[in-house]
Amino acid sequence: MSCFSRIVVGPAIGLSLAFAALLPSNASEGTVVFADPSRIAAIGGSITEIVYALGEEKHLVARDSTSNYPKAALDLPDVGYMRQLSPEGVLSVNPTAILALHGSGPREAVDVLKKTSIPFIEVPEHYSHEGIIEKVRIVGKALGVDAKAEVLAKALDAKLTAAEQQTASIKERKRILFVLSMQGGKILAAGRETAADGIVKLAGGVNAVEGFSGYKQMSDEAIITAGPDVILMMNNAGPPVPDDELFANPSIASTPAGAARKLIRMDGAYLLGFGPRTADAIHDLAVSLYGAQVKD
Fold first, then answer.
1. Cβ contacts of 50 within 8 Å, gap of 6 or more
2. What is the pLDDT of residues 78-116, one digit of tens each?
3. Domain-terminating residue out of 66, 94, 123
4. 269 lies in which domain range?
């Protein structure tokens, strides 16, 4: 038995936006439906998951490397990491359409893809309950299955609402420090407007970092000032950081989380995907944080 608390968690049980952000590059204004969805390249794990959740996976001809769920998706050709795409790699699968999550890149590669004759829809990413529902409706619209998308959206809406309500009565909120990496002893942590910030809030926690947006390397003083109760990390992203190495960091050791050796690790795509499985991820994270205080 380890001398510290370490929890490893796995999976458990009206659209409003600017049309310009959605339009295929060769489509007329207002068009958000693929004319030919027979061979879609899906870029972004949540996009691929939504296509499968809609039962429309027969349209997929390729995925990016973040699309590792469901397991069947791994049989599709991999066109590369969504933030390091090459136009040649995406076009090599001869797609009739491209569905890409906002943030795909690099920007130059996306610009090249948008200038081809292949319709390209960029799906907005908002790290919120509403953002998930929006993605489902946009993907469903693109595939021409609006009715199926609405059924899925309503089911996910109810499930997300229930997951959020499980921590509604908790008074003492845990302060969470999400550590993306630790290179050279420096902590790279998640600030506002990140997937980590979003999931922590949905699970009834408080992001211990408040002074910046995005991911940033933090000073020892800033980490101590943040005073997290719990450290949250992904268990399958980049070089692993051993538990002992994390807690040996002087700044981490000086926090309540370090003193109590409180660490939660979760699968990155599951925790930060903001897709069909997010309600389950909210529940699992909440239980890891609050135990029996979580109301089923």
1. 135, 136, 139, 152, 275, 276
2. 999 999 999 999 999 999 999 999 999 999 999 999 999
3. 123
4. 5-11+168-293
